[in-house]
From TrEMBL:
InterPro entries for the chain: CDK (IPR050108), Kinase-like_dom_sf (IPR011009), Prot_kinase_dom (IPR000719)
Keyword Zinc-finger annotated: no
Protein name (Swiss-Prot/TrEMBL): Protein kinase domain-containing protein
Gene3D superfamilies attached to this UniProt entry: Transferase(Phosphotransferase) domain 1
One GO biological process term: regulation of mitotic cell cycle
Classification via PANTHER family: CELL DIVISION PROTEIN KINASE (PTHR24056), CYCLIN-DEPENDENT KINASE G1 (PTHR24056:SF415)
Keyword terms of this UniProt record: ATP-binding, Nucleotide-binding
Pfam families associated with the record: Pkinase (PF00069)
Any one of the GO CC terms: nucleus
Length: 186
């Protein structure tokens, strides 16, 4: 979601997001010359050349944003589409037909990627930090894993994500009446 005016939400594609001013001009800081815009949040099916687009792409981006908020840095920060795929595969393991039906039919799947057999995502979000508190609970990690599922057909939907147990863990979200308000700068 994005807002043109404070009270007018707009649906956006967070996976391929570019910021533009009110006249539609792209901000130079978000556009790269090589066309690799906001790659850290692009779904692997797009990076591998999939022709179909579904809301699953946006759910992948939500997972990347969730991880970025928790880690305070992008989870996958490649310098090109190929490097981006390497970063994803190094963290989540290299996909195959067993975990992603149709993977081998994607144009980019023919490249020779290093084989990473294991999902190492939990190492990025340990059960306990140096302070002893959890960086991400088991329920939160489950949601993150479901958001970052390779197979778009098996990736969690927005409706199911909102019903996930992680959103019912303590501390519960505050009612909006208890949240600070800020006047928009016009």
């Amino acid at each position: 979601m994005a807002a043109g005016r404070v009270d007018v939400p707009r649906r956006t594609d967070v996976g391929n997001l570019n910021w533009a001013d009110k006249n539609g001009y792209d901000y130079p800081s978000t556009r790269r010359n090589d066309g690799f815009n906001l790659g850290p949040r692009r779904a692997p099916e797009l990076l591998l050349g999939a022709k179909t687009y579904s809301t699953a792409v946006d759910m992948w981006s939500v997972g990347c944003i969730m991880a970025e908020m928790l880690a305070k840095q992008p989870l996958f920060k490649g310098t090109s589409e190929i490097d981006q795929l390497r970063k994803i595969f190094d963290t989540l393991g290299t996909p195959n037909e067993n975990i992603w039906a149709g993977f081998s039919e994607l144009p980019g799947s023919k490249a020779n990627y290093s084989k990473q057999r294991y999902n190492l995502l939990r190492k990025k979000f340990p059960v306990a930090s140096f302070t002893g508190s959890a960086v991400l609970s088991d329920a939160g990690f489950d949601l993150l894993n479901r958001l970052l599922t390779y197979d778009p057909d098996k990736r969690i939907t927005a409706d199911d994500a909102l019903k996930h147990d992680w959103f019912r863990e303590l501390p519960l979200p505050k009612s909006k009446e208890f949240l600070p308000t800020f006047r928009p700068k016009v």
